[in-house]
Amino acid sequence: MRTDIVHIGAGELTYEIRNIVNVGEKLQKMGIKTYWENIGDPVAKGEKIPEWMKKIVAEAAMEDSSYAYSPTRGILKTREFVAEQTNRLGGVQITPDDIIFFNGLGDAIAKVYGLLKRTARVVMPAPSYTTHTSAEAAHAGGHHVSYALDPHNNWYPDLEDLENRIKYNPAVAGIQIINPDNPTGMVYPVEFLERITDLARKYDLFMICDEVYLNITYNGQKTVPISTVIGDVPAIAMRGISKEMPWPGSRCGWLEIYNADKDPLFEKYVSSILNAKMLEVCSTTLPQKVMPAIMFHPEYASYLAERISRYEIWSNIAYDCLKDVDGILVNRTNGAFYMSVVFEDGAINDCQTLTIADDNVRSHIESLVSRPDVSLDKRFVYYLLGATGVCVVPLTSFATSLQGFRSTLLERDEASFRMIFQTIADSIRRYLAS
Question: What global pTM score does this model have?
Answer without folding.
Answer: 0.92
